[in-house]
């Protein structure tokens, strides 16, 4: 009985952190420079300009040396005051964590959502938001907060529809959106969709390691920040915006991650965002073909909002998804996302983002298929063959 010694590359198929391309790793390995020197200021200006293109905004994008959770907090503390009502929508585990944070900060979140079997299997219901905002005649609700790509379920909500709902109710609430796992893999448009604060992170579609996160902000959000009373210092936008004018930060920024970010932005913009998005859609379609061929259910129940970033695979009744995942990890050196919160033990998540291609995905699906068989999961057919056929028959150019 030989011990298992992994060789070759680990398959990091969780929905973030995503595999980091070698080009980015190399960029990050350069020597750290003086963050107050001229070379750094030039880098700061360059990457802040390119970053706007990825968020599709003309307004400032704030970068924090923090994980996505920090940028969530920054979005709330910069715009709101103690006791403010905020309307949030329960799409899954990450929406629930943001709501918990709002409570801890002394806000009054109201958590809308679908209940029972429908919960966590659909996107944000814009009509429910509109109906609630119409009832709020004296405008007690100060912000609407939603998650764009719910990483715990694999559902990408229609953000433009939520904007239309807020407008239809003629409500002045700020619109705050978490696209931590959506940006640069799923279509996202900060300005066009009238978002006031977009929250994002480095370790998903931007293909970087964890460690930096973002707030893209609107003029309305900047105005709100001038009246907002929640305590803030490190997260406060004003000093950062001021220092960013010359490409600097008011504190020591995460220099080597910024090298990586600059490289990632070059990669995305050289390829073209439309191409990047089509690539993820195509991968997601191939992975769904595999799940269908296995005869298993996808966590997302609404094809309109299937995520291009990840797919949640529901295990049959009586199968512990965590045991299947563990077996796959131990036998095939493949990491899959676990079921989080209410979905714990019921499903696993396959990430299709970061440094991958058709064949790495087919290999990952191979690990899933073999592992499920070993765990005794009854499969209808071969998902690997279905995905391979899909990729072979749908060249990327045709997917655009
Ligand atoms: N929101 C979403 C949608 C996420 O996927 C994550 C992390 O996976 C977070 C928030 C929290 O970000 P972090 O873990 O980087 O703090």
TrEMBL record:
Domain Aminotransferase class V: 50-327
Any one Pfam family match given in the protein's UniProt record, by short name: Aminotran_5
Domain of life where this protein originates: Bacteria
Cofactors, names only: pyridoxal 5'-phosphate
GO biological process, one term: glycine biosynthetic process, by transamination of glyoxylate
Residues that bear N6-(pyridoxal phosphate)lysine: 204
Matches recorded under Gene3D superfamilies: Aspartate Aminotransferase, domain 1, Type I PLP-dependent aspartate aminotransferase-like (Major domain)
GO MF assignments: alanine-glyoxylate transaminase activity; L-serine-pyruvate transaminase activity
Keyword Lipid metabolism in annotation: no
Keywords noted in UniProt: Aminotransferase, Pyridoxal phosphate, Transferase
Residues holding substrate: 349
Keyword flag Transport: no
Family membership noted in the UniProt record: Belongs to the class-V pyridoxal-phosphate-dependent aminotransferase family.
Name this protein carries in UniProt: Serine--glyoxylate aminotransferase
